[in-house]
Amino acid sequence: MKFPAWLADQLLALQHFPPPAGYQQTIQILRGLRLTTICQSARCPNLGSCFAQGVATFLILGEVCTRGCRFCAVQRGQPAPVVEDEPFRLLQAVRELHLKHAIFTSVTRDDLADGGAGHFAQVVRTVRLGAPGITIELLTPDFQGQAEALESVAASRPEVWGHNVETVPRLYRQIRPGASYQRSLQLLAQIKDLAPEIVTKSGLMLGLGETPDEVYQVLKDLQTAAVALVTLGQYLAPSGAHTPVVRYVTPEEFDHWGRTASEMGFCGVAAGPLVRSSYHAGELYRKVALP
Q1: Domain count along the chain
Q2: What angle is formed at CA 86 by the lines to CA 81 and CA 92, rounded to 5 degrees?
Q3: Which CATH number is 198's domain given?
Q4: pLDDT tens, position by position, 5-15
Q5: 124/103 Cα distance (integer angstroms)
Q6: Most distant pair of Cα atoms in the chain: their distance
Q7: Rg of the chain in Å (alpha carbons)
């Protein structure tokens, strides 16, 4: 499918030649603390502009995923053991980057009994203790729907708990083998049962072959699960080996979905070709947190 000129222009606008000082500083901090980000592993198009502002979404629990979602650039295979001092290195990065809103995500770790839930909880507790006043956002895998795993993360009380449905249920077998649309919806609903004060969030990629009716139904399902924040962005294939783009959604269509989601009652919506799960995450959270 031909790459549209308007999207090429948007991508070009995100590039910095040479990279600004803030970008290099962020890279140096991450390297020095032996940390990585989903921005790097998933080849996010916003990486340059976010790193230039000292903003990053930390990738915890390693860089190797036990699943093989066909839209994702993260490496699949057998992960390494959990590194116990990672929460403390993350705290140091939060301090050095002067973050006010920290975001942590992970690969899927089906090899771990709790899916890595206990490590997520430890990260939240460590960062909260060492950086008072910070707000914390998580973007977690589904933990295979284990109730105890969800309870462990909920007990750490992040301000925002995100879990992406990614696409419409019809495309799950093709795009997200090993995942379950209903399990993801149930997880989002359970979070609110466990800790009503946690703001829930989910994201959806467009351009994979979904229909408008299917997108609208996903938004309705997310509302039923009491999700407050939603992001919608264009799927961009990381390589020729990944699921190809079926269609490039125009900015006007994204504006339509942004208005639709807002009119449906979502507290915060980000919709656009280059929107990703953590896109302006602090600003989106403040739409809920501030009166």
Answers
A1: 1
A2: 165
A3: 3.30.750.200
A4: 878 878 777 77
A5: 10
A6: 50
A7: 18
